[in-house]
């Protein structure tokens, strides 16, 4: 390929990147990723980078699995495309739906395919509104979400998300989306006991329902553990109370499992780890380990029954794309047959938890949070008061991320929280390397920002 500098120049000139400023591209140039194996990326200069984010939280089985490439090639030769509209179907879509129904908790037995998480969440908006309308309650259409949540970048996904900076671009949210605060004790809990804080934040859902009117609220959407919001783990008191409130007011519970699904928290789904009983789950990312774009809404018997009784006028050209379904199915086979969830539970997560928690002794690190293989640390100038670097929130996180990059480690920052979600196949030895590079990067960042 062309020399790196030339690639970077062409990239800056012609490629509009998501979530990146033009200045970042012209001044520094993008790092060009050329290939990848296991948990390591290789850039166009031959540098090996430890990918502690599994891409965008998705490459659960690790990079470079030939089985998926073989399955994709075979499927492309046999049936590269057909749709699932108007009474047609095909084997990969059928087999994957059956497998997902088997893995999903409770009676979530029905799969509506999308291309990724954003459009699966768009599906959910139309689905829950159609559900209540078909049940004779068309007014029941408001969806409650949480500030600082990320549910995608489409108009629907951005609206469901609680990121104010995203709302500003495009005059969003759409009408009928309301928000409650997130259960982020570290940043917002003040002097409260974490469990009391968790309960108080959950009860905001009840207050919001009563404010809007229970006959007007269709659903509550949340990730079991908020990912892109900063790996925010709610206090234990939070989810049982949310579940109680959804049950009491007959509000559909949508668990956005786009990050938490497929082993990330040690179980197939985050809802199982946190004992949540959703009516609908959004899945994507780890469903195919990112090898093919695919997402889905997995819905309960009751929701499916109502949707099947009408004609749900919704679908994407690539809903249930045969190649993506075949790849996803092979990915699930690998996760299952190689015991990767057991590896997370018994080997990788305990080892990472011990090492990750040890970062709390760093002068700049406040709380370290971890569930399964998703983890965060809060950066703070004062551990006692849990202060943030408020004047320029995000800057210290950004500097730390840059130091990680310099040390060939991909960690992400959300404001001043550093987050990781490595491939689930990561070994204890690789975790040690990850922690070593993280610590070195924190030291370097601390040198830059102290005083
Ligand atoms: N929901 C959650 C929780 C996500 O983290 C994401 C992506 O990061 C999405 C939805 C959107 O998924 P996609 O980028 O596949 O559209």
TrEMBL record:
Record carries keyword Transferase: yes
Keyword hit for DNA-binding: no
Cofactor annotation: pyridoxal 5'-phosphate
Record-linked NCBIfam families: PRK07480.1
PANTHER family: AMINOTRANSFERASE, AMINOTRANSFERASE CLASS-III
Family: Belongs to the class-III pyridoxal-phosphate-dependent aminotransferase family.
Protein name per Swiss-Prot or TrEMBL: Aspartate aminotransferase family protein
Annotated source species: Aliiroseovarius salicola
């Amino acid at each position: 390929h062309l020399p790196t500098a030339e690639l970077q120049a062409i990239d800056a000139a012609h490629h509009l990147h998501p979530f990146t400023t033009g200045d970042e591209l012209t001044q520094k140039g993008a790092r060009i990723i050329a290939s990848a194996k296991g948990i390591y990326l290789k850039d166009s200069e031959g540098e090996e980078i430890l990918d502690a984010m599994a891409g965008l939280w998705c490459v659960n089985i690790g990079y470079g699995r030939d089985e998926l490439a073989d399955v994709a090639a075979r499927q492309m030769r046999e049936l590269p495309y057909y749709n699932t509209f108007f009474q047609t179907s095909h084997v990969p879509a059928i087999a994957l739906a059956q497998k997902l129904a088997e893995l999903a908790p409770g009676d979530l037995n029905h799969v509506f395919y999308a291309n990724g998480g954003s459009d699966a969440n768009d599906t959910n908006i139309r689905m829950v509104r159609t559900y209540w309308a078909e049940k004779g309650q068309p007014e029941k259409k408001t969806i409650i979400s949480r500030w600082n949540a990320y549910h995608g970048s489409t108009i629907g996904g951005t609206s469901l998300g609680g990121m104010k900076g995203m709302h500003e671009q495009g005059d969003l949210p759409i009408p009928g989306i309301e928000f409650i605060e997130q259960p982020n004790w570290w940043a917002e809990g003040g002097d409260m006991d974490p469990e009391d804080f968790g309960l108080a934040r959950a009860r905001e859902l009840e207050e919001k329902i009563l404010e809007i009117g229970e006959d007007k609220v269709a659903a509550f959407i949340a990730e079991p553990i908020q990912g892109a919001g900063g790996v925010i783990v709610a206090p234990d008191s939070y989810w049982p109370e949310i579940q109680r409130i959804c049950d009491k007011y007959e509000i559909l519970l949508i668990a956005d499992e786009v990050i938490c699904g497929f082993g990330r928290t040690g179980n197939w789904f985050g809802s199982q780890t946190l004992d949540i009983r959703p009516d609908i789950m959004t899945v994507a990312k780890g469903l195919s380990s990112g090898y093919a774009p695919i997402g889905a809404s997995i819905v309960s018997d009751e929701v499916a029954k109502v949707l099947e009784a009408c004609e749900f006028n919704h679908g994407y050209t690539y809903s249930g794309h045969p190649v993506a379904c075949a790849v996803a199915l092979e990915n699930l086979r690998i996760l299952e047959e190689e015991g990767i969830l057991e590896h997370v539970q018994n080997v990788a997560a305990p080892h990472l938890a011990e090492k990750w928690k040890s970062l709390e002794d760093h002068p700049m690190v406040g709380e370290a949070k971890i569930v399964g293989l998703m983890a965060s640390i809060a950066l703070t100038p004062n551990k006692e008061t849990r202060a943030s670097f408020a004047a320029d929130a995000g800057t210290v996180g950004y500097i730390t991320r840059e130091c990680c990059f310099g040390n060939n480690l991909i960690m992400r920052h959300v404001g001043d929280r550093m987050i990781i979600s490595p491939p689930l196949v990561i070994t204890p030895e690789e975790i040690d390397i990850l922690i070593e590079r993280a610590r070195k990067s924190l030291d370097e960042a601390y040198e830059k920002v102290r005083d």
